[in-house]
Amino acid sequence: MSDEEKNSWLEKNTFHHGEFWDILKLVEEKEKKGLKISLCIPTLNEEKTIGKEVLILRSELMERYPLIDEFAVIDSGSQDKTLEVAGNYGADTYLASDILPEVGDKRGKGENLWKAIHQLKGDIICYVDADITNIHPRFVYGLVAPLINRNEIQYVKAFYDRPLNYSSGLRPSGGGRVTEILTRPLFSLFYPELTNVIQPLSGEYAARREVLEIIPFPIGYGVETSHLLDLYHKFGIEAFAQTDLDRRVHRNQTTTALGKMSFGILQTFINRLHAQGKIDQIPDMETFYRRFEVEDGAYRQIVQEVVEEERPPMIEIEGYRTHRASLSS
Amino acid sequence: MTIETQTRDIALETLLKDIPRQIENLRSVRETFLTDAVLLGEIPSPTFGEEDRIRLVMDRFRENGLEEPTLDEFGNASGIIPGSSSEFAILVTAHADSVFSAETRHVLEVGSGHITGPGIADNSIGLAAVVALPKLLEHLNIKLKEDLILLANVKSLGRANLEGARGFLDTMRRPVKAGVCVEGASQGRLSYSGLGALRGEITINIPKDYDWSGFGAAGAISHLNRLINQLMEIPLPKEPKSKMTFGGLTAGSSFNTSPKTGRLRFEITSEGDDVIDDLETRLNEICEQFSMETGTEVRMETVAKRQNCGIPFTHPLVKTTRAIMHEAGITPKVDPSTGDLNALIRAGHPGVTLGLTTVENLREENETIQLDPLYAGLAQLITLLQAIDGGLCEE
Questions:
Q1: B21-39: per-residue pLDDT in tens?
Q2: Residue A271 is part of which domain span?
């Protein structure tokens, strides 16, 4: 792709949520095209923020404007009151382990996203993280609007300013450290077109069922990266769009947690480099993430296993095919 | 008992009987007003800086189909739910400003039975109730004869001295049957009188040529301390009831440097206008004397001054409100207002202020409202509007 083409993609497929303020118009367009939209929030111990997300998104986008047809919270086994609070405000609540029990239960956000494809009925599925403290309907309508309006777009990513939440208040920017230090350099090396995706690791995106069901889902940190790489490989950059959602306030993560996350993303990335023929051979990769801690002046190595297990494309699961067939009949 | 009184009583009885249904119905549509409370509450709206919150109010007024949604010259947002006869108007108002600065982190937490965050009680939930009224009335299938004017008033608190509400009422040319001021805090509140009040600031400046070696020489904090002690010695009458509150003290920024400026904010409230006038004079005298004795510059500025006003306890509006509260399971607590009600009554309209729900940590960043009592709080408001509309609150 030439620089000119890249710029053209940026221009054509980058939106601002403000372009879609007329939600009623979106609802009309959605109904005209006969689309159903499902919203999924994957959770694990999110009782502090889930109530507000469900209240606002359901009230504004199901009751006031019927843009969303189905609203589900899919939980990994929270120990707090996440499901009680979410259910209280009208979300359909599920335990990931209860969905497709015949394929077993794995722990991770990607597992919940993957199982949502089976559980939810929508033609478009929108995923929104549960830890957004400044939740607003734009986090949903900004993402589904390009899919409603333009048939050729398959997958819409969010981008935003990312102030971090500190006890003393907000610190502007500084979020997206893994993006800038790991993902962006890797994309620049191997997938330069994907560098146009401003926030490749954002947890908010919407996609059509047809594309979600044909790609594998890492259950851990690599799920966002794998989506981009797999869909880019199959459809090219034109399948993507991105929407500026302004500001997103979220919890800050420690550098240690980000190191572990990067380790998981790297596994996903290298596996795809190999699968897509970008590199010939890779050795058997370690699954132990090693780092150091200093205690009483002595260095101590901490070893944690981070295995980026993957779920196969949902379309390959018999239970899913049967379920979809029963829905369409 | 006259026939007219009997008819009124029967009409009121009919309204009161409907309260339990209203409470249950309001519970089932709580998302309507809770969402507005959160969306409005997460927009900072300090006094004199309410524009962003008011913009959302205007959007909601339009979305909810109000007639004539208007942003007036004072910054207030208003709109009308048209009645079937529209001879008179009923005014429902809530202040849109908050005591929290724009720098405060305006993030609300929504739990199963509560909402917590700065300003949710004072007054995001009150404002949300006003904004959501068209939807709530529609849901309850209530249609009024009179026009209902909804007003989100600005510049209400502190220094602003009810500027928005006063401006709106001064320029409104419609006959008003009655007005209701809506506050989040606290359920049971029944205000039908505006309390006379004086708000002021006393500033102490240490002049450049101050003799730091003189007897009793000190920085602004020490002087303010002495001055406060003198103010506290002023005898306040028990009747009429009077109170002096020191609400803010600002001086200094270090550990080891005496500040040269200090400021005290205070409020005097009294049921006697003469008491307030006397206290104002007394305070000015104390400041003048203190200045001369200490060689400091002491200046007292009256930020806001209001006279007592109100309608009698026996006014049908108050009597009806009490009956409604009783039926809704709410115990009335008479509490003279220093807020919007003053502007309403001084403009010549009968009015009351109601509180919607139970509140903890009022005016703290972890201000919390309980959701369960809220439905009865809203039902009392809606039933009162029906009673005013039905002519049950007139003398």
A1: 999 999 999 999 999 999 9
A2: 3-328
* Number of domain units in chain B: 2
Confidence at B216, pLDDT banded by 50, 70, 90: confident
- Per the domain annotation, does B394 fall within a domain? no
In three state form, how does the secondary structure of A236-254 look?
Answer: CHHHEEEEEEEECCEECCC
Residues of A in contact with B110 (CB under 8 A): 51-52, 55, 85, 89
Q: How many CB pairs under 8 A join A and B?
A: 45
- Could you tell me if B383 and B16 are in contact, meaning their C-beta atoms sit under 8 angstroms apart? yes
Residue B395 forms part of a structural domain: no
Structural domain boundaries enclosing B235: 196-306
Mean pLDDT score of chain A:
90
First to last CA, chain A: 43
Q: From start to end of B129-240, where are the E strands?
A: 147-153, 176-185, 189-191, 193-194, 196-205
Residue-wise pLDDT tens digits, B56-102: 999 999 999 999 999 999 999 999 999 998 789 999 999 999 999 99
Residue A136, chain B, CB below 8 Å: the answer is: yes
B35–A55 CB contact, under 8 Å: yes
Minimum distance, in Å, between the CA of residue A49 and any CA atom of chain B: 6
Which pLDDT does position A291 carry in this prediction?
84
Token output for B366: 């972890």
> Domain holding A201: CATH number?
3.90.550.10
